[in-house]
Design brief:
This protein has 5 helices and 7 strands. The protein is of the alpha+beta class. The chain has a domain of 109 residues: Mannose-Binding Protein A, Chain A, CATH 3.10.100. Strands 1-2-3-7 form a 4-stranded antiparallel β-sheet, with no helix packed on it.
């Protein structure tokens, strides 16, 4: 069933009407049940300057005081497909931490809100390109083939899509900025 059929109530042979509100609540509940791998290092002892959003921890990581997240300061400059991006983050050992992950689209969007020029001061090798975002099947409930696509967030300041989440095929290659909870 296509989007127009769904929007206008036309039912196909195998179609069903879904309660999107209920489905979103189920997704929220599933996310709350997910546990993450615990870090082997204590929280950063770097004290931020009052009013400073980002603090360079001096160990290849940057703490975002607005979100509490710790970001990889410099990526390795390689583009990867989605599966490789997940593996890269899971195997990353940086700043004494081994619980790195691919950021969710909301986390990347919040990062992009700082503006590209400001981000260049914090993340010296940031690319004016797309970055992969961790994407769950629940987020792609609308897609016919959710296993083939994933979200990216555009960091190209000259793009009309700057800071927007857009899906692309998982086989495409984009950049990664790993993140972990602080």
């Amino acid at each position: 069933m296509g989007i127009f059929d769904w929007l206008f109530g036309k039912k196909g042979k195998d179609s069903e009407v879904k309660d999107v509100g209920k489905e979103k609540e189920e997704v929220k509940n599933k996310r709350q049940q997910i546990t993450t791998k615990k870090s082997t290092k204590k929280k950063s002892t770097v004290k931020p300057t009052e009013g400073t959003r980002f603090v360079d921890n001096g160990d290849g990581t940057v703490t975002d005081n607005m979100t509490g997240l710790i970001w990889q300061k410099e990526d390795d400059g390689k583009e990867r497909n989605y599966k490789e991006a997940l593996g890269y983050c899971e195997s990353l050992n940086l700043g004494g931490y081994d619980d790195w992950r691919l950021p969710r689209k909301e986390e990347l969007i919040k990062l992009a809100e700082s503006g590209y020029e400001d981000l260049k001061q914090v993340f010296p090798n940031i690319k004016a390109e797309r970055y992969w975002a961790k994407t769950s099947h629940e987020e792609l409930y609308w897609a016919e083939n959710p296993d083939k696509i994933a979200y990216t967030v555009d960091f190209d300041p000259d793009s009309s899509n700057y800071g927007a989440a857009i899906t692309y095929f998982r086989s495409y290659e984009y950049y990664i900025r790993a993140v972990r909870s602080g």
